[in-house]
C-alpha cells in the first residue's frame, strides 16, 4: 500500500510543480462538460494516471482549476476539471468538443523571431508523397536508387481534426502532376517542430534541456477529395481533402486536434499561419515558422485572381507575410474566446497565392473551412 502511494506521488510530480507555482499561474476554466472537483474524487483521471505517458501526465497540470492549501494531502488540495463521463478512446467519426480541441499548451517560445514555439501548433501535419515502387522500376539505375537513403521531404501541410483524420487541400492529393506521375499521399507526420532533430529539444531558462515526445509518421489509409474539385483549375473551387490515417493517434503535448467552425463565417480580422514552407531565402525551413496576417475582403482577391466564391477566404498581402511553397494545405487559424478560454479554430486551408510569395498587396486565397463542415462530417468513418 505504501509503495503504491509513493508511486502515485511520483506520477503526480507535474501537478506538484503546478501547486508550487500556483501563485504565478491562472487556473483552467472548466467546460460545461466538466466539473471542478478534487483530484481524489475524479476517477476518470486518477485511475488512468499509471497508464499515462509523460506527456499525458504533464497535461493533467493544465486541467487544474483550483488549489485549496488547507487540506492535508495532495489529492485533496488539487482540484481538476473532471469530465462528466469516463474518458474513452475517440472513434474516427467523432469530432472533439470545445475543451478537447484547439488548446495550445504553454510553449517554449523563440524570442524575437518568427519561429513557432514548441507545442504552439500541435495540430500541424506534414504530408509526404511517394510513387509506388512498381512505377519507379524502369531501369537498373532505378533499382539501385531504391537502396540510396534519401532525406524525407514534405510538399504539403495539413491539420489534425480528430484521432483519425487530417484535413488538407485537394490539390495536395489530386493535382494533374500527381495523377500523371502516379504519385500518392503516402504518410503524415504529426508532432513535428524541427525536421532536422529527433526528438525536438529546447533549453529552458534555467539551462536544463527539455525534449518533446517524438514525432509520429503514420501511413495514410484513405484519401478523400471533394467531388467538386477540378484538378489544376484556375479558380481552385472546393480545394479540400480528408486523409484517413491507418491507425488512431493518442493525443500528447505535441499532438492535439484543432477545432472546426460550426458556421461558415468566423468574424476575425487577424489570423495566424504556420508551417515549414519556403522562407524569403527561397528554401524550406527546418523549424516551424509562424506569422499573423490580416483578413481581406473577397473583392480584393477577385481583383487579383478573378472569380471567387463565398466558400473561399482572402487574407494576407501585407508586410511580406504569406504562406509559400510547401505550405499548401496548411491551416489558416483563428483564435476564438469561449467561456473565458481561448481556442484555435481552423478558419481556412491554404489554397493558392501570388508567385513569388509575399508580394505586397497580393493576398492569398484559402478554402473557407466552415463552408465544408457538413461535407467533412459526412465523410468521417469510425
From TrEMBL:
Entry keyword annotation includes Phosphoprotein: no
MF GO annotations: metal ion binding; serine-type endopeptidase activity
Keywords for this protein: Calcium, Disulfide bond, Glycoprotein, Hydrolase, Metal-binding, Protease, Serine protease, Signal, Zymogen
Domain of life: Eukaryota
Ranges where the Peptidase S1 domain occurs: 110-381
Keyword Membrane: no
Any single GO BP term: proteolysis
Gene3D superfamilies: Trypsin-like serine proteases (2.40.10.10)
UniProt-listed Pfam families: Trypsin
Residues annotated as signal peptide: 1-21
Family as reported in the entry's similarity comment: Belongs to the peptidase S1 family. CLIP subfamily.
Record protein name field: GL13651
Organism: Drosophila persimilis
Amino acid at each position: 500500500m505504501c509503495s503504491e502511494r509513493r508511486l502515485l506521488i511520483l506520477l503526480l510530480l507535474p501537478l506538484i510543480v503546478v501547486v508550487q507555482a500556483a501563485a504565478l499561474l491562472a487556473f483552467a476554466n472548466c467546460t460545461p462538460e466538466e466539473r471542478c472537483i478534487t483530484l481524489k474524487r475524479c476517477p476518470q483521471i486518477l485511475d488512468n494516471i499509471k497508464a499515462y505517458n509523460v506527456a499525458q501526465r504533464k497535461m493533467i497540470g493544465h486541467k487544474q482549476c483550483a488549489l485549496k492549501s488547507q487540506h492535508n494531502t495532495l489529492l485533496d488540495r488539487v482540484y481538476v476539471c473532471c469530465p462528466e463521463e469516463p474518458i474513452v478512446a475517440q472513434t474516427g467519426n467523432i469530432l472533439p468538443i470545445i475543451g478537447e480541441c484547439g488548446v495550445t499548451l504553454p510553449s517554449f517560445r523563440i524570442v524575437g523571431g518568427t519561429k513557432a514555439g514548441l507545442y504552439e501548433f500541435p495540430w500541424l501535419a506534414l504530408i509526404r508523397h511517394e510513387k509506388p515502387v512498381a512505377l519507379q522500376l524502369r531501369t537498373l539505375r532505378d533499382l539501385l536508387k531504391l537502396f540510396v537513403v534519401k532525406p524525407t521531404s514534405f510538399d504539403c501541410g495539413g491539420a489534425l481534426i480528430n484521432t483519425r483524420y487530417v484535413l488538407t487541400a485537394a490539390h495536395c492529393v489530386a493535382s494533374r502532376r500527381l495523377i500523371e506521375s502516379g504519385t500518392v499521399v503516402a504518410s503524415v507526420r504529426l508532432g513535428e517542430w524541427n525536421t532536422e532533430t529527433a526528438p525536438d529539444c529546447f533549453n529552458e531558462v534555467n539551462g536544463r534541456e527539455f525534449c518533446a515526445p517524438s514525432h509520429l509518421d503514420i501511413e495514410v489509409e484513405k484519401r478523400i477529395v471533394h467531388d467538386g474539385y477540378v484538378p489544376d483549375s484556375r479558380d481552385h473551387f472546393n480545394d479540400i481533402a480528408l486523409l484517413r490515417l491507418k491507425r488512431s493517434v493518442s493525443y500528447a503535448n505535441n499532438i492535439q486536434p484543432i477545432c472546426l467552425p460550426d458556421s461558415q463565417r468566423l468574424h476575425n480580422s487577424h489570423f495566424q499561419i504556420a508551417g515549414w514552407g519556403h522562407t524569403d531565402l527561397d528554401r524550406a525551413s527546418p523549424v516551424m515558422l509562424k506569422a499573423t496576417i490580416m483578413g481581406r475582403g473577397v473583392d480584393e482577391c477577385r481583383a487579383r485572381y478573378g472569380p471567387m466564391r463565398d466558400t473561399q477566404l482572402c487574407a494576407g498581402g501585407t508586410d511580406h507575410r504569406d504562406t509559400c511553397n510547401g505550405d499548401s494545405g496548411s491551416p489558416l487559424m483563428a483564435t476564438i474566446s469561449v467561456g473565458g478560454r481561448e481556442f484555435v479554430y481552423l478558419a481556412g486551408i491554404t489554397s493558392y497565392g501570388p508567385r513569388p510569395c509575399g508580394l505586397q498587396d497580393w493576398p492569398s486565397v484559402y478554402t473557407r473551412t466552415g463552408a465544408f463542415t457538413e461535407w467533412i462530417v459526412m465523410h468521417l468513418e469510425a
